[in-house]
Amino acid sequence: MNENFQDITCRAVGAEIFKIEDIQTLWSGYGKVMRYGLKGGDRNSVVIKHVKLPDQSAHPRGWNTDLSHQRKIRSYQVETAWYRNWAERCDDSCLVPQSLALESSDDEFLMVLEDLNASGFPARKDVVTMNEMQVCLKWLANFHAAFMGKAPTGLWPVGSYWHLDTRPDELEVLEDIELKQAAAQVDQKLRASPYQTFVHGDAKLANFCFSANGQHVAAVDFQYVGGGCGMKDLAYFIGSCLYEKDCERYETPLLDYYFAQLKEALVKRKSPIDPADIEQDWRALYPIAWTDFHRFVKGWSPGHWKIHGYSERLARDVVAQLNSENL
User: Fold this and answer.
1) Degrees (nearest 5) of the Cα angle 157, 158, 159?
2) If you average pLDDT over residues 290-317, what whole number do you get?
3) 20-75 confidence digits (pLDDT tens)
4) pTM (predicted TM-score)
5) Cβ neighbours of residue 194 closer than 8 Å, sequence gap 6 or more
6) Fewer CB near the terminus (10 Å): N or C of the chain?
7) CA proximity to 30, closest of 52, 59, 4
8) What domains can you pick out in the chain, each with its CATH number?
Protein backbone atom coordinates (compact mmCIF):
# COMPACT_ATOMS: atom_id res chain seq x y z
CA MET A 1 0.00 0.00 0.00
CA ASN A 2 1.08 3.56 -0.52
CA GLU A 3 1.87 5.57 2.62
CA ASN A 4 -1.29 7.63 2.38
CA PHE A 5 -3.44 4.49 2.43
CA GLN A 6 -1.47 3.13 5.38
CA ASP A 7 -2.10 6.37 7.28
CA ILE A 8 -5.81 6.22 6.43
CA THR A 9 -5.99 2.66 7.75
CA CYS A 10 -4.20 3.53 10.99
CA ARG A 11 -6.52 6.48 11.63
CA ALA A 12 -9.62 4.43 10.82
CA VAL A 13 -8.78 1.66 13.28
CA GLY A 14 -7.08 3.84 15.87
CA ALA A 15 -4.01 1.64 16.00
CA GLU A 16 -0.72 0.77 14.37
CA ILE A 17 -1.00 -1.96 11.75
CA PHE A 18 1.24 -4.83 10.74
CA LYS A 19 0.79 -7.39 8.00
CA ILE A 20 -0.12 -10.93 9.02
CA GLU A 21 -0.74 -12.63 5.68
CA ASP A 22 -1.94 -12.43 2.10
CA ILE A 23 -5.38 -14.02 1.90
CA GLN A 24 -5.66 -14.04 -1.88
CA THR A 25 -4.59 -12.27 -5.05
CA LEU A 26 -7.38 -10.50 -6.90
CA TRP A 27 -8.50 -11.71 -10.33
CA SER A 28 -6.04 -10.93 -13.14
CA GLY A 29 -3.47 -9.43 -10.77
CA TYR A 30 -5.48 -6.36 -9.79
CA GLY A 31 -4.34 -6.37 -6.16
CA LYS A 32 -4.61 -8.38 -2.97
CA VAL A 33 -6.81 -9.17 -0.01
CA MET A 34 -4.68 -9.18 3.14
CA ARG A 35 -5.04 -9.63 6.87
CA TYR A 36 -3.43 -7.01 9.09
CA GLY A 37 -2.92 -7.12 12.82
CA LEU A 38 -3.45 -4.11 15.07
CA LYS A 39 -1.32 -2.78 17.90
CA GLY A 40 -3.85 -1.07 20.13
CA GLY A 41 -7.40 -0.25 19.12
CA ASP A 42 -10.55 -2.19 19.90
CA ARG A 43 -9.97 -5.18 17.61
CA ASN A 44 -7.09 -7.55 16.91
CA SER A 45 -7.17 -7.62 13.12
CA VAL A 46 -8.76 -6.27 9.96
CA VAL A 47 -8.98 -7.40 6.35
CA ILE A 48 -7.72 -4.97 3.72
CA LYS A 49 -8.75 -5.20 0.09
CA HIS A 50 -6.19 -3.19 -1.87
CA VAL A 51 -6.72 -2.76 -5.59
CA LYS A 52 -3.84 -1.49 -7.68
CA LEU A 53 -4.72 -1.29 -11.35
CA PRO A 54 -2.00 -2.94 -13.44
CA ASP A 55 -0.46 -1.43 -16.54
CA GLN A 56 -1.38 -4.58 -18.45
CA SER A 57 -3.64 -7.24 -17.04
CA ALA A 58 -2.98 -10.95 -17.49
CA HIS A 59 -6.33 -12.68 -17.57
CA PRO A 60 -6.06 -16.43 -16.90
CA ARG A 61 -8.40 -17.26 -19.79
CA GLY A 62 -7.14 -14.67 -22.24
CA TRP A 63 -9.95 -12.11 -21.85
CA ASN A 64 -7.46 -9.28 -21.71
CA THR A 65 -9.30 -6.37 -23.35
CA ASP A 66 -10.02 -2.75 -22.56
CA LEU A 67 -13.68 -3.68 -22.03
CA SER A 68 -12.61 -6.25 -19.43
CA HIS A 69 -10.37 -3.68 -17.74
CA GLN A 70 -13.14 -1.06 -17.61
CA ARG A 71 -15.57 -3.65 -16.23
CA LYS A 72 -13.16 -4.42 -13.40
CA ILE A 73 -12.63 -0.74 -12.59
CA ARG A 74 -16.40 -0.27 -12.45
CA SER A 75 -16.72 -3.34 -10.22
CA TYR A 76 -14.43 -1.81 -7.59
CA GLN A 77 -16.32 1.47 -7.77
CA VAL A 78 -19.52 -0.50 -7.21
CA GLU A 79 -18.07 -2.42 -4.28
CA THR A 80 -16.95 0.83 -2.67
CA ALA A 81 -20.44 2.28 -3.16
CA TRP A 82 -21.96 -0.89 -1.71
CA TYR A 83 -19.99 -0.65 1.51
CA ARG A 84 -20.46 3.12 1.77
CA ASN A 85 -24.19 3.36 1.07
CA TRP A 86 -25.89 0.00 1.36
CA ALA A 87 -24.10 -2.59 3.49
CA GLU A 88 -25.34 -1.24 6.80
CA ARG A 89 -28.87 -2.29 5.79
CA CYS A 90 -27.82 -5.92 6.15
CA ASP A 91 -28.76 -7.31 9.57
CA ASP A 92 -27.78 -10.52 11.34
CA SER A 93 -29.87 -12.56 8.89
CA CYS A 94 -27.65 -11.57 5.94
CA LEU A 95 -24.38 -10.58 7.54
CA VAL A 96 -21.64 -8.76 5.63
CA PRO A 97 -18.38 -7.34 6.95
CA GLN A 98 -18.48 -3.86 8.46
CA SER A 99 -16.47 -1.31 6.50
CA LEU A 100 -14.00 0.72 8.55
CA ALA A 101 -12.44 2.86 5.81
CA LEU A 102 -13.00 3.36 2.07
CA GLU A 103 -10.66 5.38 -0.13
CA SER A 104 -9.76 5.56 -3.80
CA SER A 105 -7.45 7.39 -6.18
CA ASP A 106 -7.04 7.28 -9.95
CA ASP A 107 -5.53 3.81 -9.97
CA GLU A 108 -6.05 2.43 -6.45
CA PHE A 109 -8.90 1.39 -4.17
CA LEU A 110 -8.67 0.70 -0.45
CA MET A 111 -11.31 -1.10 1.60
CA VAL A 112 -10.61 -1.72 5.28
CA LEU A 113 -13.09 -4.31 6.48
CA GLU A 114 -14.03 -6.25 9.57
CA ASP A 115 -12.11 -9.52 9.84
CA LEU A 116 -14.87 -12.12 9.65
CA ASN A 117 -12.52 -14.83 10.93
CA ALA A 118 -12.15 -12.88 14.16
CA SER A 119 -15.92 -12.24 14.27
CA GLY A 120 -16.81 -15.92 14.38
CA PHE A 121 -16.80 -16.93 10.72
CA PRO A 122 -13.44 -18.67 10.25
CA ALA A 123 -14.48 -21.57 8.00
CA ARG A 124 -14.45 -21.76 4.19
CA LYS A 125 -15.99 -24.73 2.42
CA ASP A 126 -15.06 -26.51 -0.79
CA VAL A 127 -17.73 -29.15 -0.22
CA VAL A 128 -20.97 -28.62 1.68
CA THR A 129 -23.71 -30.70 3.23
CA MET A 130 -27.35 -30.07 2.41
CA ASN A 131 -27.72 -28.29 5.75
CA GLU A 132 -24.80 -25.98 4.95
CA MET A 133 -26.31 -25.19 1.56
CA GLN A 134 -29.55 -24.30 3.32
CA VAL A 135 -27.67 -21.89 5.60
CA CYS A 136 -26.45 -20.04 2.50
CA LEU A 137 -29.91 -20.12 0.89
CA LYS A 138 -31.32 -18.57 4.07
CA TRP A 139 -28.74 -15.78 3.77
CA LEU A 140 -29.74 -15.21 0.14
CA ALA A 141 -33.46 -15.19 0.96
CA ASN A 142 -32.96 -12.57 3.66
CA PHE A 143 -30.66 -10.51 1.44
CA HIS A 144 -33.21 -10.51 -1.36
CA ALA A 145 -36.02 -9.61 1.04
CA ALA A 146 -33.98 -6.76 2.54
CA PHE A 147 -33.53 -5.04 -0.82
CA MET A 148 -36.80 -5.95 -2.51
CA GLY A 149 -37.97 -3.08 -4.72
CA LYS A 150 -34.96 -0.86 -3.97
CA ALA A 151 -33.32 1.09 -6.80
CA PRO A 152 -29.64 0.04 -7.08
CA THR A 153 -28.25 3.59 -6.93
CA GLY A 154 -24.47 3.56 -7.35
CA LEU A 155 -24.44 -0.18 -8.03
CA TRP A 156 -24.75 -2.14 -11.26
CA PRO A 157 -28.18 -1.41 -12.82
CA VAL A 158 -28.30 -5.14 -13.52
CA GLY A 159 -26.21 -7.19 -11.13
CA SER A 160 -24.09 -10.34 -11.77
CA TYR A 161 -20.69 -10.57 -13.37
CA TRP A 162 -22.04 -12.44 -16.39
CA HIS A 163 -24.75 -9.93 -17.33
CA LEU A 164 -25.28 -9.88 -21.08
CA ASP A 165 -24.68 -6.16 -21.62
CA THR A 166 -21.23 -6.41 -20.02
CA ARG A 167 -20.18 -9.59 -21.86
CA PRO A 168 -20.34 -8.95 -25.63
CA ASP A 169 -17.00 -10.66 -26.27
CA GLU A 170 -18.16 -13.94 -24.76
CA LEU A 171 -21.44 -13.76 -26.66
CA GLU A 172 -19.62 -13.10 -29.92
CA VAL A 173 -17.61 -16.33 -29.71
CA LEU A 174 -20.50 -18.50 -28.45
CA GLU A 175 -20.87 -21.36 -30.92
CA ASP A 176 -24.31 -22.51 -29.71
CA ILE A 177 -26.29 -20.50 -32.27
CA GLU A 178 -29.76 -21.12 -30.82
CA LEU A 179 -28.60 -20.10 -27.35
CA LYS A 180 -26.83 -17.07 -28.83
CA GLN A 181 -29.98 -15.97 -30.63
CA ALA A 182 -32.05 -16.39 -27.46
CA ALA A 183 -29.63 -14.51 -25.18
CA ALA A 184 -31.34 -11.13 -25.34
CA GLN A 185 -34.76 -12.63 -24.73
CA VAL A 186 -33.45 -14.64 -21.74
CA ASP A 187 -32.05 -11.43 -20.28
CA GLN A 188 -35.29 -9.57 -20.93
CA LYS A 189 -37.33 -12.25 -19.17
CA LEU A 190 -35.28 -11.76 -16.02
CA ARG A 191 -35.52 -7.98 -16.23
CA ALA A 192 -39.28 -8.10 -16.82
CA SER A 193 -40.07 -9.74 -13.48
CA PRO A 194 -42.15 -7.33 -11.37
CA TYR A 195 -40.14 -8.48 -8.35
CA GLN A 196 -36.71 -6.89 -8.63
CA THR A 197 -34.27 -6.82 -5.74
CA PHE A 198 -30.51 -6.63 -5.30
CA VAL A 199 -28.52 -9.67 -6.33
CA HIS A 200 -25.14 -10.41 -4.80
CA GLY A 201 -23.90 -11.07 -8.31
CA ASP A 202 -21.15 -13.57 -7.45
CA ALA A 203 -22.84 -15.78 -4.87
CA LYS A 204 -20.58 -18.79 -5.23
CA LEU A 205 -19.72 -21.04 -2.31
CA ALA A 206 -16.24 -19.50 -2.00
CA ASN A 207 -17.77 -16.13 -1.10
CA PHE A 208 -19.54 -17.46 2.01
CA CYS A 209 -17.73 -17.49 5.36
CA PHE A 210 -19.06 -20.09 7.80
CA SER A 211 -19.17 -20.17 11.55
CA ALA A 212 -17.16 -23.00 13.13
CA ASN A 213 -20.28 -25.15 13.53
CA GLY A 214 -21.48 -24.42 9.98
CA GLN A 215 -24.83 -23.03 11.17
CA HIS A 216 -24.28 -19.37 10.24
CA VAL A 217 -22.68 -17.50 7.34
CA ALA A 218 -21.58 -14.08 6.26
CA ALA A 219 -20.89 -13.12 2.64
CA VAL A 220 -18.08 -11.18 0.98
CA ASP A 221 -17.08 -9.86 -2.47
CA PHE A 222 -19.66 -7.32 -3.64
CA GLN A 223 -18.06 -6.23 -6.90
CA TYR A 224 -21.08 -7.26 -8.96
CA VAL A 225 -23.97 -6.40 -6.65
CA GLY A 226 -26.88 -4.70 -8.41
CA GLY A 227 -30.49 -4.94 -9.43
CA GLY A 228 -32.13 -8.13 -10.63
CA CYS A 229 -34.19 -11.23 -10.08
CA GLY A 230 -33.06 -13.26 -7.07
CA MET A 231 -33.05 -16.47 -9.09
CA LYS A 232 -29.76 -15.37 -10.67
CA ASP A 233 -28.04 -15.74 -7.29
CA LEU A 234 -29.85 -18.98 -6.56
CA ALA A 235 -28.99 -20.70 -9.83
CA TYR A 236 -25.37 -19.59 -9.65
CA PHE A 237 -24.96 -20.64 -6.02
CA ILE A 238 -26.46 -24.10 -6.50
CA GLY A 239 -24.35 -24.58 -9.62
CA SER A 240 -21.23 -23.71 -7.61
CA CYS A 241 -21.97 -26.43 -5.04
CA LEU A 242 -23.29 -29.42 -6.96
CA TYR A 243 -22.34 -31.60 -9.90
CA GLU A 244 -24.78 -32.52 -12.63
CA LYS A 245 -26.78 -35.35 -11.03
CA ASP A 246 -27.20 -33.55 -7.72
CA CYS A 247 -28.29 -30.32 -9.45
CA GLU A 248 -31.23 -32.27 -10.82
CA ARG A 249 -31.83 -34.38 -7.75
CA TYR A 250 -31.94 -31.48 -5.28
CA GLU A 251 -33.45 -28.74 -7.46
CA THR A 252 -36.96 -28.97 -5.99
CA PRO A 253 -36.07 -29.35 -2.27
CA LEU A 254 -33.54 -26.50 -2.47
CA LEU A 255 -36.04 -24.20 -4.16
CA ASP A 256 -38.71 -25.21 -1.64
CA TYR A 257 -36.38 -24.32 1.22
CA TYR A 258 -35.36 -20.99 -0.33
CA PHE A 259 -38.95 -19.88 -0.89
CA ALA A 260 -39.95 -20.89 2.63
CA GLN A 261 -37.14 -18.70 3.94
CA LEU A 262 -38.04 -15.87 1.57
CA LYS A 263 -41.63 -15.93 2.80
CA GLU A 264 -40.45 -15.76 6.40
CA ALA A 265 -38.07 -12.91 5.59
CA LEU A 266 -40.72 -10.88 3.75
CA VAL A 267 -43.21 -11.33 6.60
CA LYS A 268 -40.56 -10.32 9.16
CA ARG A 269 -39.89 -7.12 7.21
CA LYS A 270 -43.64 -6.43 6.84
CA SER A 271 -43.33 -6.44 3.05
CA PRO A 272 -46.57 -5.75 1.15
CA ILE A 273 -45.59 -8.43 -1.39
CA ASP A 274 -47.59 -11.65 -1.33
CA PRO A 275 -44.96 -14.42 -0.93
CA ALA A 276 -47.07 -16.75 -3.05
CA ASP A 277 -47.01 -14.28 -5.95
CA ILE A 278 -43.26 -13.82 -5.92
CA GLU A 279 -42.71 -17.57 -5.59
CA GLN A 280 -44.91 -18.24 -8.62
CA ASP A 281 -43.04 -15.63 -10.67
CA TRP A 282 -39.51 -16.54 -9.58
CA ARG A 283 -39.87 -20.33 -9.71
CA ALA A 284 -40.68 -20.04 -13.40
CA LEU A 285 -37.58 -17.87 -13.83
CA TYR A 286 -35.16 -20.32 -12.18
CA PRO A 287 -34.41 -22.22 -15.43
CA ILE A 288 -34.23 -18.85 -17.23
CA ALA A 289 -31.61 -17.64 -14.75
CA TRP A 290 -29.69 -20.91 -15.09
CA THR A 291 -29.72 -20.53 -18.87
CA ASP A 292 -28.49 -16.95 -18.57
CA PHE A 293 -25.35 -18.08 -16.75
CA HIS A 294 -24.98 -21.10 -19.03
CA ARG A 295 -24.89 -18.70 -22.00
CA PHE A 296 -21.99 -16.84 -20.43
CA VAL A 297 -19.90 -19.80 -19.34
CA LYS A 298 -20.35 -21.60 -22.66
CA GLY A 299 -18.87 -18.62 -24.48
CA TRP A 300 -16.24 -17.81 -21.84
CA SER A 301 -14.84 -21.30 -21.28
CA PRO A 302 -16.37 -23.97 -23.54
CA GLY A 303 -14.68 -26.82 -21.65
CA HIS A 304 -15.81 -25.72 -18.18
CA TRP A 305 -17.07 -28.42 -15.79
CA LYS A 306 -20.37 -26.55 -15.30
CA ILE A 307 -21.31 -27.26 -18.92
CA HIS A 308 -23.06 -30.58 -18.37
CA GLY A 309 -26.19 -32.46 -19.28
CA TYR A 310 -28.42 -30.78 -16.71
CA SER A 311 -27.40 -27.29 -17.88
CA GLU A 312 -27.76 -28.24 -21.53
CA ARG A 313 -31.22 -29.72 -20.96
CA LEU A 314 -32.48 -26.68 -19.05
CA ALA A 315 -31.11 -24.35 -21.72
CA ARG A 316 -32.65 -26.37 -24.57
CA ASP A 317 -36.03 -26.36 -22.82
CA VAL A 318 -35.85 -22.61 -22.20
CA VAL A 319 -34.84 -21.84 -25.79
CA ALA A 320 -37.64 -24.04 -27.11
CA GLN A 321 -40.14 -22.29 -24.82
CA LEU A 322 -38.98 -18.87 -26.01
CA ASN A 323 -39.12 -19.94 -29.65
CA SER A 324 -42.69 -21.16 -29.20
CA GLU A 325 -43.63 -17.80 -27.66
CA ASN A 326 -42.25 -16.06 -30.74
CA LEU A 327 -44.41 -18.01 -33.19
Assistant:
1) 115
2) 96
3) 999 998 877 788 999 999 998 889 999 999 998 776 544 444 445 678 888 988 99
4) 0.94
5) 281
6) C
7) 52
8) 1-119 (3.30.200.20), 123-327 (3.90.1200.10)
